[in-house]
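Standup notes, structure subgroup. Blocker cleared on the adenosine-5'-diphosphate input:
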Amino acid sequence: MTARAGAPGTAGGPESMPGPAALVGVLAPFVVLFGLASLLPLTGNAYFGLIVGRAAVYWVLVSGLNLVVGFAGQLALGWVALLTLGAYVTSVLSAGTATPPISPYFALAAAALVGGVAGVIIGLPALRLRTFYFAMSTFGFATVITQIALGWQSVTGGGIGVVGPTFGGPFASTWGFYYFCLGVAALCTWLSANIAHSRFGRALMAVRDAEVAAEASGISKPLLLPLVFLFAGATAATAGGLFAALQSYITPDAFTIDLSLLFFIAILIGGRGSILGPLLGTVLLALLPEFAAPLVAWAPFLYAALLLVIVLLVPGGIARLLDFRSRRPLQTGRTITPDLEALPALLPARTATEPMAIEKAVLSFGGVKAIDDLSLTVTPGQVHGLIGPNGSGKTTLLNVVSGYYRPDSGAVRLGALTLRPGAPQTRAGAGIARTFQAPRIVGEASVLANVMIGGMVRGRASFVETMLSLARHREDERQLRARALLALQAVGLGRLAEIRADRLQHTELRFLEIARALMPDPAFLLLDEPAAGLAADEIALLGGLITAISRLGIGVLLVEHHVDLVFDICARVTVLNLGRGLASGTPAEILAHQDVINAYLGG
Ligand code: ADP
Ligand code: MG
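Run returned:
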């Protein structure tokens, strides 16, 4: 069988690829916003120029911070630290208070560099500290940088301050500099959108909403987050340099915690996982106090009120308000129709025949031996069933195999290779994929994007190539997308590809997880109770799907409570009881095994 172009006539045909029309729809709001802003000089109103210019500068910072907060879910509350740093580095270098004065353009580039490094340093605690503790640590950095600016008088001018840079050349005039700010803002929008709509951006959302699934897909948080902190640090420091030029004179008290909250709230009211939403949020917060002049003193109160209203009334923020497509009702009574003929193109025939062996695995939690001296071998091309009462250690065993738990003793081997214990992010690359007992998905992302998360290890383009949308990145995206559509067609969710994942039914999520697990082209597939909550006809479809997957040479380890399904499709079955292997054999042998009948099947 060969890959087919679509499935003519079937109800579950793949969604059409987004054509130029869809792209225009995505770009239009940005073109309109930047277009309007670039017409502003026609009004000749320099005051408007100043506040819209400032909004653009704020957005330069927020465009990067958005990836940290809105995509990766890291509460970097004190990001004003990097604005401060960038403002001082640009001003001090171009004023020449520490070195011979250099061109403000070079000073700005230097600030971006310093900001990138500082962003990584300020962001690093996020790998260890959770939510509020990380938020507090960023506040700490903000205070430290302000104190240095105050104390290092010979360079920063202390409380008296330092003159901001004056950009020369074509951007010297007021409106010239305004266009410079708009240009940098447009550039940052493009760069951050490239990252957001890539495997890196999807990986960030997976880290935020489904960390375990992210790891199982080969996403390494310690490798990923520093890249984004680098980007967010560089954009924030660039914003600082521009901010200093707009202010023309900077003192430490220009960089308040209020300002930091403004950036953060702009992202929250804009909506997580969106670019347009936070852009509108930033513009709104920057302009609002100006159009309600008597309210300027009340600005922080205004922001707080706005945040409260949004959180209470539209939890998804501006992005959700603008997401008209998701308000269209979904077809009810949907059926899942797997298309098994799509599988061979997805999982090409494999030659490797190395089995996966769990050898004498032991793992205790406190006094409880969750698995106790357990060995079993999964053969490629076969389904191996794992059954046992609740709490008998089935999920724990999958967690040991997938590297989430480190066993007290024993090993997991792929042929001659021993898998590194306690390193879940290495499994996808080694050819082991899994699903979860409770589906782990990114609710705000589309079904398609969720499946594409599973293809992380297949991407080739580096972070920089991705950020600049170079050829290798575009090829990655094209392939991942085509592959994800094929996987969705195979599991029978092709028609739901563009739907937000949190709108799916529970049963559909189980199939979605299988599609995601097929993305890396795994040699072994671990399924944790995939039939839980499914209706009888859906279980039959699932059985057919698992069988078809195994026939392509994949070894499946199936944890399941529906023993009918297990005895139907498994070549071998292992029965667990209190973490120990009670019996192992063919379905016929297990069904006749007296201990199993007594302990589990009920005699
Ligand atoms: P099953 O999937 O077969 O229902 P589990 O593998 O989830 O069983 O659990 C096996 C045993 O290990 C249970 O007694 C459970 O309470 C215990 N257990 C599992 N995970 C943990 C954990 N993270 N901490 C403490 N105990 C755990
Ligand atoms: Mg379980």
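Discussed briefly. The pocket of adenosine-5'-diphosphate (ligand 1) is lined by residues 365, 368, 370, 388, 390-396 (CB under 6 Å).
Next: hand off to the docking folks.
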